[in-house]
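Dear all,

This email documents one entry for the complex benchmark we are building for the journal club exercise. For each entry we list the sequence lines for every component of the assembly. Then comes the predicted three-dimensional structure of the complex as a C-alpha cell string, followed by one or two observations. Please use this as the template for your own entries, and keep the labels exactly as they appear.
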Amino acid sequence: MSSGKSETSSDVSRRKFLKVGAGVVAVAAAGAAGYYLMSQPPTPPTTTTTTEVLTPEEIEWGIWSWGVELVQDNARIFNEANPDVHVKIGDYGLDTYGSGVATAYAGGKPPDMHYSTPDITITYQNAKNTYDMETDYPEIKQYNDDIYPGYQSGLVNPYTGKMCGLFYYSGGQTFCYNKRHLEAAGIGDQPPKTMDELRDQAKKIKAKSASDKTLPEFPLGYFAGSWGFTECAVYTTLLTLTDEKPPFLFDEDLKPKFDYKGSPLFNAIKFIGDTIWIDKTSTTAVTQYDEATTVKVMGSGKHSYIWMPDYELAFINATDSKTGKPATDEAYNIKFAVSPGSGRIASIYRTYLPSHTANDSGARHRDAVWRLMQFTGGKTTNTKPDFANGKYQVVKRLAMQAGLAFPYISMWDDQEILDSMKAWCDPLARKDALALAYDFFNDPKMTTWWDPWFGYWLGGFVRPKLHSIWLGEHGKPASDDYILQTLNDMAAEWTKMKQAAGG
Amino acid sequence: MKGDLKDTLIGLLPALIPLFLFGFYPLGYAAYVSLFRYNLKYPTQYGFIGGKNYVDVTQMYYFIGSLTSSVIFAVVAIPIILFASLALAMLAAREFRGSGFLQWLILVPWGIPYVVAGLDWKWLFDSNYGLINDILLKLGVIESYQPWLTMPWPAMFAIVISFIWVTLPLPTLLFLAGIQSIPQELYEASRVDGAGALARFRAITFTWLKPIFLIVVILTTLSSIQVFDPIYVITQGGPADFTAMITFYTFLEMFNFLDFGHASALAFMIFIVSVLLIFAYFYALRMGRLRLRA
C-alpha cells in the first residue's frame, strides 16, 4: 500500500503531462490542417450526381421440408437474376408445418410468402393476417383463365372475394387400376366405367385370386388413413357416386345438408363399408394407409384399384436407378383412368400464400414478393413476370423433376412436360382424370373449424367415426340407421363448432 | 450461516437457472395460458376466461374416450411391467453362467428412444409385411395376414408392448438392487425353519421389496399417463380413436387445432395428477429408507 501523499503528487504530475500533451497535439493538428487547406488549388463548383445503391429487398419464403434442395436452387436462380431482391428460405418442418407457421404469425413475423393448405389458409384469412395479391396486382386474375374450374376457388379469399396467390401444386385423388390384374382375371384391359361395374370387377378378381395367387384377395383399396386423405377417400367416393350438383355437405349458410338416408355422404360411407363387409373386396387395413403405405401396397399388387394422389404413381411405375430393374413388383402395370361413376374426383392443392408482411413494408417489398410468386407459381421469362409470353418455370420444373401435377391448362400443351411423364404414366389419361377434379375444400367454402371437425391431419370428430363404421365396430356392415345416427352426430358437432367460432 | 446459504445458492445456480427457465417458467406460463381463450385460429378473441377452458375440455367430444384409453393403457401396462421386471430381476440376481450378459441385455432397450421403438413395433405389426403376421401364419395360428393395428385391442397391445420394452429396464434395476440388498441370512434361517420357495418369496422377498413395488408402480404410472410417442408413431390414435389417450389430444389441441388454452388446460390437468403421484413417490421413498434403516 502506498501513502496518500505520494498518490496525490503522482496524479497531479500525470494530469499536467496529459494537458500539455493534448495542447501540443491540438496546435499541431490545427497547423497542419491550415497548411493543407492553404496549399490546395481552388476547385471549380461542380454538379454532383449521387447514385442511390439500394440494398436487396429481403423476402422470406416459408416452405415445408419437402424437396428443400430443389427449392433452394429455385431461390438461387431467382436471386441471381434479381440482384435487387434476396429470397431467404424458411423451413418450417413437415409434421409441424401448420403449428410452425401459426407460431410465426402469432409472433408477428410470418414469412412473406409461404406454402399453404386450405385449412391453414382460412385461418389466416379469417384473422386478416394475409394479403390478397389482387388488391394491388389485378393482373393476377389473368391466371384464372388458365386454371381448371375445380381449382379456381382454391385461390380466392372467401372473406374478400379476391385472389390471394397462385398454385404451388394441384393434383387430385386420381383413379388408378392394375392392368395386369384385370387381364389375368379375364376382365380385359378396360377399367370400369360405373361404380357398379367396379364392384363387379373387384368381385371377379377376388374370386379368381383363390386359384391365381398373383391376384389380390382385396382388389379394392381406399386411401383412407392419415394425413388428410380420409376425407379425400370419402369425398372422392361421394363424388363418383352422385350426379347431383355441388355443394354436397353444407348449404350456402354452412348448415349441414348431409344428414339423411340416401344423401351423397351417406351413400359414400355405406359404399366403402359394403365393399369391406359384404363384398369382402376391400379390407379394414385401408384405415391405416398413409402415403408410403399406399405406394407399397399398390406397388406390391395388394389391390387392383385405388384413388390416390396422382404423383404417387411416379414412385410405383419407376425403375431402380442402381439395379436398372423395376422399383416395384407391379411397376408399369398401374394406370390412370377417369374415375368410374361421375368421373369427378377430389382435388388436392397447395398454394403460395402471401402474409401481411408482404404488404407491410411498402411497395418495393410487395413488388418483390409478387415477382417471386410469379416465378414460383406463375409465368415468367428469365424469372421476370411475363404472363403473355412467359412459361411456368418452377411449376414446370416440379412437374418434370418431381412428377407434381398442375392446374394450368396450357401446360398440358407443353410437349416437354408430357414427354417427362411418359416414363410413368399416360399423360392424357392423367389430364382427363384431373380435369374433372372438384374442390371439396370449398364445399361451398372452407371454414376455420373444418379441420378440428373432420380431423384433417389427425384425430378430429368425423375421422374416428367413419373409421369406426368401416372397422365393423357397429355391425358388419353398419346398419343404415347407425350411419344416419353418425351423420346426425356429425351435423350436431358441426353446428356446435360453428357457434363456438362465432358463425 | 448466511455466507453458507449464499455459497450454496451460488453453487446451485447452474442447476436452478435451467430448472426455472425450462421447468417452472413454462409450467407457470401453461397455467396462466389455461385461463385465457387463446386459439391461434381466432387470435382476435384472445382474453381472460377463468376456468372455462377446464370446463370446456371436459365437455369436448374426445375427453371421456381419451381418458378411458389412458386408464385402459395404464391398467394393462402397469401390472405387466411390475411382474415382468420383478421376474427379470429375480432371474438376473441369480448367479449362473451368462447372468452378466443377461443383466446387460435387460438394460439395452433403455437406450432406445420411444419413437424408434414405436417404429420397430409398427413394422412388426404391419398388416402386409409384419413379422408377427409371418410367424403366426407359419405357426398356423392365422389363415391370412391380419390388419392388427385396425383392431382395438391388438392396437392397444402394440402400444403397450412398445412402451414396456423401453420402460422395463428401470424397474428391473430397482428390483435387482432391492433383491441384492436382502440379507442372505434371512433366506438361510427360513430354510432351516423349513419354509418353501413360495413362503420364502412371500415372507422375505415380497415383504422386503414392498416399498420398491410402490416406487415402481408410481414411476410406471407417471410414465404411462405421459405416454405419447408410441401412440403418435404406431396408431396415430386409431383405430377409431381407441388409442387416442389424453396426451394425444393435448398434442392435437396444441399443434393441430392450435387451441393453446385447451391444450394448456389439459396439460395442467395431467400435471396435477403427476404431482399427486410424485408426492406418493416421495412417501414411498421415505418408506423405503425406513425399511433399509430397520
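Observations: Chain B has a mean pLDDT of 91. Chain B has 13 helices and two strands.
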